[in-house]
Amino acid sequence: MTALQEVLLAVSLWPILFTISNPINCGDEQSSLSNCLSISQEKLLDRVIQHTELIFRVSEESCTLFEEMFIPLPLQLQTNQAGNACMTKALHIPSSKSEIQQITDKWLLHSVLMLVQSWIKPLVYLQTTMTQYDFASETLLNKTKWMLEKLISLEQGVVVLIKKMLNEGAMATTVTEQDLFPTDLQPDILASIMNDYNLLSCFKKDTHKMEILLKLLKCRQNEIYNCA
């Protein structure tokens, strides 16, 4: 079996959960989601926000590390100017300030959940491919592993939050796996590195978007005028 086939096999074996269920392990008091079902709605929302902030911070650190190790400055500038075609664009989640302010609390929560779930499988892929790079540091590999673990924990917290706030299960997505996950993987090492860099950059953008949506939700829950 080739290295590329091993990557595809590892990715195909990872399930994305789209149904409501009781979270088994919501973490502990230290930057995690503890006892999701028993804590108050307000406290759970605060923990979900803190969790998202931490993931965003580590995604920034991971992008910087990846750039320092693999991406020369000219390529960084070229990539930034061209912009990233992020896979989650297919989800059609509002991004402008005016669009975000118009969506309901229900869609704020479900938008966050869709973003979280759409990134679990790509992070499995990212963790697998980066182990093949000769010069990938343990620090970067550990950060990637940490982000995947915390993203799964975040999913559990958001699912419980939906149940608490909306008294319903998670809505099924109509976007197929093929829409979200690239199937035209290239075995070439440079193409693989640039693809991973794009994934990390997009993940950083989407975790920031999750943070914005959740903070808007908290603002609305506190009935603060003119939440932005």
What does this entry look like structurally?
It contains 8 helices and no strands. The chain is 65% helix and 0% strand. The radius of gyration is 18 Å and the shape is elongated. Residues 1-25, 27-34 and 172-186 have low confidence and may be disordered. The chain has a domain at 40-80 and 93-172 and 188-222: Growth Hormone, Chain: A, CATH 1.20.1250. The protein has helices at residues 3-12, 41-70, 73-82, 97-102, 105-130, 138-166, 177-180, 189-221. With 228 residues, it is mainly α. Helix 2 (41-70) runs antiparallel to helix 8 and helix 5 runs antiparallel to helix 6. The termini are far apart. The longest helix is centred in the last third of the chain and has 33 residues, at 189-221. Pfam families: Hormone_1. Residues 1-21 form the signal peptide. InterPro entries: 4_helix_cytokine-like_core, Somatotropin/Prolactin, Somatotropin_CS.
